[in-house]
Design goal:
Helix content: 25-40%
CATH topology of one domain: Rossmann fold
CATH architecture of one domain: 3-Layer(aba) Sandwich
Radius of gyration: 18 Å
Order of helices and strands: EHEHEHEHEEHEEEHEEHEEH
Shape: globular
Strand order of the largest sheet: 2-1-3-4-5-10-13
Strand content: 15-25%
Number of strands: 13
Number of helices: 8
Length: 260
């Protein structure tokens, strides 16, 4: 079996590539960091013989205000990848987001993800979108809440840390992506059902490292107090990792790396 992962050098892409290779699957990683643009690659490359394309490459974060880059990378490139897979009859599994769900969309980022879901439904019905919910794990992407908590001694929490999230551990996200290849759903959730406030999340990290938490009453632009799970969308049936266990695993992996 052969798969292509766009965004293969990213936080989720790297974890997925490792998991697939352990299963004996041939993985081709496409990433801007390696000098390969996904849009250029799928415009000209011969992808016959590929069983699945995992399209993870994107501009990320609801706080990203660069509309031009988001429209180019999240919408225009997605159309190119989706159309190429549809022409060849190749299964497409792509990264969507909890921010695409009704009521969760607050910015162009969520709008772009919702567009992708509708586009794939119309032009590649065999494709499966995976709505990620607040992914976290070892070596997190820079700029995320966990990255700040791990790399700074003082972290601000807006809305007094009351924002509610469904923090989903990276291993569960990877298993959801593997599941998506063989499923017939056009859209699925990868979502830990456990509801966790950002304050509780920070306090769990604080158990393992010195950390000063600064509570800010104001709310951030484009943020949302509660990021809900759309129950009308099928959720991958996993034993999702409890947040306390996920944070413990992160620090265990950091201790292991330091001993090597």
């Amino acid at each position: 079996m052969k798969v292509i992962i766009t965004g293969g050098e990213g936080f989720i892409g790297k974890a997925l590539a490792v998991a697939l290779r352990k299963r004996g699957i041939e993985v081709c990683s496409i990433d801007r960091l390696n000098g390969i643009e996904a849009g250029d690659f799928f415009t000209s490359a011969d992808i016959s013989g590929v069983d699945c394309v995992y399209h993870l490459a994107a501009q990320t974060s609801v706080f990203n205000v660069n509309k031009t880059d988001i429209i180019r990378d999240n919408i225009e490139v997605f159309k190119i990848v989706c159309d190429a897979c549809a022409r060849r009859g190749i299964k497409l599994v792509y990264a969507s987001s909890s921010t695409a769900a009704d009521g969760n969309t607050t910015s162009i980022y969520g709008i772009s993800k919702r567009f992708n879901e509708d586009y794939a439904r119309c032009y590649h019905p065999r494709a499966t979108g995976v709505r990620f919910h607040n992914v976290y794990g070892p070596r997190p992407r820079q700029g995320t809440l966990l990255w700040h908590l791990l790399n700074q001694e003082r972290v601000k929490l807006y809305n007094m840390g009351r924002n509610v999230r469904h923090f989903t551990y990276i291993d569960d996200i990877v298993e959801s992506l593997v599941y998506a290849y063989g499923c017939n759903h056009q859209l699925i959730n990868a979502a830990n059902p456990e509801e966790t406030t950002t304050l509780h999340f920070a306090e769990l990290v604080k158990q393992y490292k010195p950390l000063e938490i600064e509570m800010i009453a104001e709310e951030r632009d484009f943020d949302r107090k509660e990021q809900s799970v759309n129950e009308a969308v099928y959720t991958v049936p996993l034993q999702y990792t409890p947040v306390a266990d996920g944070i413990r695993r992160i620090f265990e992996s950091m201790d292991y790396e330091q001993t090597q």
